[in-house]
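ok so for the tutorial part 2 we go from a plain amino acid sequence to predicted structure tokens. step 1 is just haveing the sequence, like this:
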Amino acid sequence: MDIPGPAGALEACLDVASGPVRAHAVLCHPHPLYGGTMNDAVLDCLAQTLLASGVSCLRFNFRGVGNSEGRYDGNGGEIEDLRAAVGWLQSEHSPSQLWLGGYSFGANVVWQSLTSLPEPDRVLLVAPPVGSMAFPELHLSCPVDIFIGDADEFARQDVLAAWQGIRSHVIVGANHFFLGQWETLRQRIEQAIS
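step 2 — the prediction. this is what the tokens look like for a chain of 194 residues:
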């Protein structure tokens, strides 16, 4: 399906949780210039775990990815795309709770969007590239969970350790892509949101 975006239609997919829906999550994919799409395997791990826990998931391709119109911006355009996806979800589905989640570049987009979006009910960041991309200091009242490998080559553990008000879930031996660790990642997410 397509949803309206600031640079044209955004290709999207809304997966509805079976049974009682406790929340709706908007999920953001990894870097568009390095093959990131809404069908990324790590993002799918996050989505499937949320769905099994009663959280419906809206995934979308940033501008210029897949069938989404426009082209990669890299200077705030992808944040505008996320705001458009959140606006569409709120107008079409009126979620009782709104969660935001992202993997890698998508985690950075989520984090940066929090300065211009109403605070969500929960934030889930998978492998945020802290130290490689800008993550402004924010003070949020909602739960923030970070899932990261101790061998993540794109995240500085010392910078992450200095963050305040977050719950950090470190997966021993996992790299940025969680190769061979997807089941552990799934279990950690499940435990964090239960």
